[in-house]
Amino acid sequence: MLVDTYGRVATDLRVSLTDRCNLRCTYCMPEEGLQWLAKPDLLTDEEIVRLIRIAVTDLGITEVRFTGGEPLLRPGLAAIVARCAALEPRPTLSLTTNGIGLERTAQALREAGLDRVNVSLDTLRPEVFHTLTRRRRHGDVLRGLAAASAAGLTPVKVNAVLMPGLNDDEAPELLAWAMEHGYELRFIEQMPLDAQHGWQRDGMITAGDILAGLRTRFALTAEGGEERGSAPAERWLVDGGPHRVGVIASVTRPFCGACDRTRLTADGQIRTCLFAREETDLRGALRSGASDAEIAERWKRAMWGKKAGSGLDDPSFLQPDRPMSAIGG
Fold it and tell me: Which of 66, 269, 275, 281 is the most buried (most CB within 10 A)?
């Protein structure tokens, strides 16, 4: 198992398939984009599948989520999904995407074995979407969501980040829309993972702000009491149910004590935390001929050294050198 010195066991693997993205969200990267990883630095499809197989069959991973960048930009994605769905024991397979391209790929991904999707959508207003993402693709995302639902990639979860002065008034509107369409909405606090390092704690919209906004229109009842285990989202029943809304408050209400995640970057580095400043190289081991057992041992050593928390509450906190797009959500 991937256990650390605090007794936490990693069973959820996040796999970044690319650092490239077709949006330029203001809280993630500059308008001109970033210096992308060179193709030889990226893990090949075969290497990705091998590492996931080791994680699932040898290290106790039960859930695999494909991320990016934008994972739909990865050629061969459906084939990767299909090979992972054939593993024994079969892991749960999900995808985090901006939704662009999902309209044409949702059915094929479902047939390959993908179980569900998380789609990022921060606003219902096309002009605000353009301001936030610097692209006019709002309609593509809405159609992608509909296609995911039609293909059975359910529950379809929608991830939204609220930004001051742009969409911070949209929480009730987003929730009403999500309920109407049968999507499960989750708000995520803006995290210090932007390439520009412009994040400011005193300028972010907090979980408290989000809940206060929602309660102007809806009655929220905490689901499952105060204990949420390893789930990143605190969830509330809306108006008594059955609809739910979640809030992921990585900054103001961290859940590090029960974290069950391990992360693999697109260039083959293991990260124990989104905010880690250290990485463990698996790509080099793969390409130097290491056996499955040797790779598994290197992975276990990396996770054994996982820190107690993200350090976000420490005044000396420093952002990771890599932005979110290069780490993988």
Answer: 66
The sign of the dihedral angle between the CA atoms of 8, 14, 15, 18 is negative
Report long-range pairs for 200-203 (Cβ below 8 Å, ≥24 apart). Answer: 201/251, 203/164
Domain that holds residue 100: 2-327
Q: Give CA–CA dist 185/174, Å, rounded.
A: 8
The whole-angstrom separation of Cα 39 and Cα 91 is 28
**Count of structural domains, the chain:** 1
CB atoms inside a 10 Å sphere around CB 96 = 20
How do residues 146-200 score in pLDDT, each as one tens digit? Answer: 999 999 999 999 999 999 999 999 999 999 999 999 999 999 998 766 666 666 6
Q: Which pairing describes strands 261-264 and 12-16: parallel, antiparallel, or unpaired?
A: parallel
| Tokens 């309209």, located at residue | 103
Q: Tokens for 230, please give them.
A: 């390893």
**Nearest to residue 96, comparing CAs of 173, 200, 13, 8?**
13
pTM as predicted: 0.92
Q: Which domain CATH number covers 130?
A: 3.20.20.70
